[in-house]
Design goal:
The protein is an alpha+beta fold. The chain has helices at about 35-45, 50-75, 110-125; strands at about 1-5, 15-20, 85-95, 100-105, 135-145. Strands 1, 2, 3, 4 and 5 form a five-stranded antiparallel β-sheet that branches.
Length: about 150
């Protein structure tokens, strides 16, 4: 038998949300002359799908942890050999990319020890700092199952 760890969808599915950093109120800036429309278009940075990039960065971190997370589950004495379990991991990433908080839902069949092991491993991870400062929340659903 082989235990597999897979996301619930065919590809890693992430929900990444960013909160802006707290800033002190500023006084209104002095009015400046409006640039011409052509100048405004020329000065715009190229379009970047920042959400897609954040998902890609987070997926890389979770892929790097795959073996460790799988080891947490396989070492669980509470795991029945016909077990399947769904676990949703919710990670709060601090402005510097460190993990501020890890919470999980589901996974009762694999036992509290396995879930605590997963939380400890994820808490040691380092993510890309949220763009623009603030925090980000990453939510990843996983499915654990034994394959004959």
């Amino acid at each position: 038998m082989k235990l597999s760890l897979a996301p619930l969808a065919t590809s890693l599915s992430f929900v990444v949300a960013c909160a802006p950093p707290l800033r002190a109120p500023r006084s209104a800036p002095a009015p400046s002359p409006s640039p011409s429309p052509a100048a405004a278009v020329a000065s715009r940075p190229p379009d970047v799908d920042r959400h897609a990039q954040a998902e890609h960065d987070a997926a890389d971190v979770f892929r790097a942890m795959h073996g460790d997370l799988l080891a947490c589950i396989t070492r669980s004495p509470a795991l029945p050999r016909d077990a399947t379990a769904d676990v949703v991991v919710d990670v709060l990433v601090a402005p510097d990319g460190t993990v501020r908080d890890v919470a999980t839902t589901g996974g009762a069949r694999v036992g509290t020890g396995a879930i605590a092991c997963m939380q400890r491993r994820i808490a040691r991870a380092s993510f890309a700092p949220p763009r623009g400062g603030g925090t980000s929340r990453i939510q990843v659903p996983f499915a654990f199952s034994f394959e004959p």
